[in-house]
Specification:
ATP-binding, unfolded protein binding, chaperone, 626 residues, five-stranded mixed β-sheet, 21% strand, Heat Shock Protein 90, 21 helices
Length: 626
């Protein structure tokens, strides 16, 4: 048997096009060829189970090997194999019509995966790294003759008889000069680990040395010897292919460690398993988040039938769950998936919605089953929940029943519970329930204590997303306002009708205000004499709630960059009812300014705003006043 011919693509431009379009993803040639070998192996197993193949299956592992001197990479399987006619059908007749139209349509394409996926060119990706490719194969069919196919990257091919006696297929790549980086043990191992780590058929890449027990020494201690064993690079039965009933917590944690060797144990996980209206399996883990949202991204791996595709899953997984870790496997997503496919495919949207629902259901189950344990995990879980509530209304509707608000006393409340807790004391004269919060409890302690003295509760809103979450709560919760505890003095945070009387005369008020303005002499500090409780501090420094919130959001990149460029402005609230202020009002001019400066610096010090030479001067003045 010998035959020569031309591959029926009607053009000589196909191989240069393959090399050009696929160059940026050139390592996927190995994924394509190993995946083909695995498919052929699974098919022979299927035929055997159906009784359509009576022979011995034997060892079904796929082997990958390379020869640096011969400059070859070889992929071998013991799958179905092919006859010469099947080679002509599946290899020579590329499934697209009109090569001229193809060349024109894709001459400016940038997405290599789209090209491969659209035209079934997986096998031809071999020519990205090889200037000659051989197929040596023997079909499982009774009486089949072995065949060899050779092509040098042109449209010419040759089919001859082969001496192969074993069922299956061997693909030999004669690596070109530009691709010799792939003739390297470490490089090939790296690619196999990336794409083939969980393929459903064992993949052997050479051998490795292991220590095995070899009897005992004279003292009765075990002896060991080194032996060469097959280097199987993959785990053919990862946990997402199993039923949750077969698995224990240790199995999930061990698999997590396999995926992320240096990570802390996850908080919990969700096992995905659905077969209608789409097929999807997988395991998603909730990691411990260290308030670094970007660092954790791209940790979910997307597979198609256990073949790794990508870890850029933003179109499949909702944006707010990009912080999760784990795997998703769906045969409904093609191996050579493109971004345009992900954005347009209806199944992808269904998968997105399904994952959102499963996560919400799992969180609700955890909350209802063991609220105390849920509260203990809230510092980590809260980031996901708040992100979801901010970004998706559907998730907000589910999460509002288990989302928690924590206060400075380390107590936790659902949204409904918290409103019930504070409404009687923290409702203003207009009927708005005012939630007070801190972003730094230690720095804002004096303001928190002032609020607590009035029986006000203060929420701890110190997570990275709380600026946005606060705004959302104000939009979603009826007649509710949120104010940072240091945005005004305690008496003014929640406006009531029972403000204390002012004890300073009009002249004294003018005198005190002038003394503080001279002592401060900073344009961005505005002095106001307030009628406050005598037990409050003599001077408090606050920032307007709206301006400070906009500036905080600008720092988070919330589209508020204009506010971020504005100078910091502060309000200096002088407590006109405090004894020290009455003393300043009656003091002589030199004493007035010194006392005013001291009271102002104390207020700065309480907020960590007194630094450098101002702090040094304050210490010296304090010693003098003592």
């Amino acid at each position: 048997m010998q035959e020569k011919g031309t591959i029926s693509i009607h053009t000589e431009n196909i191989f240069p096009i393959i090399k050009k379009f696929l160059y940026s993803d050139h390592e996927i040639f190995l994924r394509e060829l190993v995946s083909n070998a695995v498919d052929a192996t699974q098919k022979i197993k299927r035929l055997s189970s159906l009784g359509q193949f009576q022979g011995e299956l034997g060892d079904l592992k796929v082997q990958v090997a390379f020869d640096e001197k011969a400059k070859t990479i070889t992929i071998t399987d013991r799958g179905l194999g092919m006859t010469a006619d099947e080679i002509k059908k599946y290899i020579n007749q590329i499934a697209f019509s009109g090569a001229t139209e193809f060349v024109e349509k894709f001459k400016d394409a940038k997405d290599a995966n789209e090209l491969i996926g659209k035209f079934g060119l997986g096998f031809y990706s071999a020519f990205m790294v090889a200037d000659k490719v051989e197929i040596n194969t023997l079909s499982y069919q009774e009486g089949a003759e072995p065949a060899r196919w050779i092509c040098d990257g042109s449209t010419e091919f040759e089919i001859t008889e082969s001496d192969r006696s074993d069922r299956g297929t061997e693909i030999i790549l004669h690596v070109n000069a530009d691709s010799e980086e792939f003739l390297n043990q470490h490089k090939l191992q790296e690619i196999l680990d990336k794409y083939c780590k969980f393929l459903p058929v064992p993949i052997q890449f050479g051998t490795k040395t292991e220590s095995v027990e070899d009897g005992e020494d004279e003292e009765g201690k075990p002896k060991y010897k080194s032996v060469e064993v097959d280097n199987i690079i993959n785990n053919p039965n990862p946990i997402w292919t199993k039923s949750p009933s077969e698995l224990k917590d240790e199995d999930y944690i061990a698999f997590y460690k396999e995926l992320y060797p240096f990570s802390e144990d996850p908080l919990f996980w969700i096992h995905l398993n659905v077969d209608y209206p789409f097929n999807l399996t997988g395991v998603l883990y909730f990691p411990k988040v260290k308030n670094d949202m970007e660092f954790q991204r791209n940790k979910i791996k997307l597979f198609s039938r256990q073949v790794f595709i990508t870890d850029e899953v933003k179109d499949i997984v909702p944006e707010f769950l990009m912080l999760l870790h784990g795997v998703i496997d769906s045969p409904d997503i093609p191996l050579n998936v493109s971004r345009s496919f992900l954005q347009a495919d209806s199944n992808v949207k269904k998968i997105n919605n399904y994952i959102t629902k499963k996560v919400a259901d799992k969180l609700s189950e955890l909350f209802n089953k063991d609220r105390k344990a849920f509260e203990e995990k809230w510092q980590d879980i809260g980031l996901f929940v708040k992100y979801g509530m901010i970004s998706e209304d559907k998730f907000y509707d589910k999460a509002k029943d288990f989302a928690l608000l924590g206060n400075t006393k380390k107590e936790f409340f659902t949204l409904d519970e918290y409103r019930e807790k504070v409404k009687d004391v923290q409702t203003d004269k207009d009927g708005n329930v005012v939630y007070l919060y801190t972003v730094d409890a230690s720095k804002q302690d004096s303001f928190i204590q002032s609020a607590n003295r009035k029986d006000y509760d203060v929420l701890d809103m110190s997570s990275p997303l709380d600026n946005h979450f606060i705004n959302q709560l104000e939009q979603k919760l009826e007649k509710t306002q949120l104010k940072r505890v240091d945005s005004d003095v305690a008496d003014k945070l929640i406006k009531k009708d029972d403000a204390p009387a002012h004890v300073l005369t009009e002249d004294e008020t003018t005198t005190v205000k002038s003394a503080f303005e001279k002592a401060i002499s900073k344009a961005n500090y505005k002095v106001e004499i307030e009628s406050l409780n005598p037990d409050e501090l003599p001077v408090s420094i606050t920032q307007d709630e709206f301006m400070r919130r906009m500036k905080d959001m600008a720092q988070m990149g919330g589209g508020m960059s204009f506010y971020g460029s504005l100078p910091e402005n502060y309000k200096v609230a002088v407590n006109g009812n405090h004894p020290l202020i009455s003393r300043i009002a009656k003091a002589d001019d030199s004493e007035k300014e010194k006392l005013a400066k001291q009271a102002f610096d104390l207020a700065l010090l309480s907020q960590g705003l007194l630094t450098g030479s101002d702090l040094t001067e304050f210490v010296k003045r304090s010693v003098e006043l003592i």
